[in-house]
Amino acid sequence: MSQTAILIRFRHTQGDVGPFSFPASATVHGLKERLLAEWPAEGPLSSERPNAAADLKLILGGKFLDVNTVLADLRAAMGDPQADTVVTIHIVVRPQTAAKATVKSEEASKQACCSIC
């Protein structure tokens, strides 16, 4: 493993995914794509499977990570990990019911604004 590779484990409330090795040049978007591809089909995490990489939010050091951020820029936030150190990044999956909520709010806005109408 080269010195520029970073081992990352993804932690969810239902369990962990990984660790996986990523080059320091990888973007957060690349991490999300890999996480989506490696998401377990069985076990407690299977019920939380996101539909797309955009449904995943990654958290490091209490801050949401921007999709365009490169891992090399996050080394200090990771504690400048050595080659054999596994870094934990927390994940939050956007609930799939969010789309239904926006449809309901659109329907409510189309209704009359007063109780008489």
Automatic annotation (TrEMBL):
Pfam families in UniProt: Rad60-SLD_2
InterPro entries recorded for this chain?
Ubiquitin-like_domsf, UBL3-like, UBL3-like_ubiquitin_dom
Gene3D superfamilies, A to Z = Phosphatidylinositol 3-kinase Catalytic Subunit, Chain A, domain 1
Q: Where is the UBL3-like ubiquitin domain?
A: 5-117
Highest taxon listed in the record's lineage: Eukaryota
Matching PANTHER family: UBIQUITIN-LIKE PROTEIN 3, UBIQUITIN-LIKE PROTEIN 3 HCG-1 PROTEIN
Its name, as the record gives it, is UBL3-like ubiquitin domain-containing protein
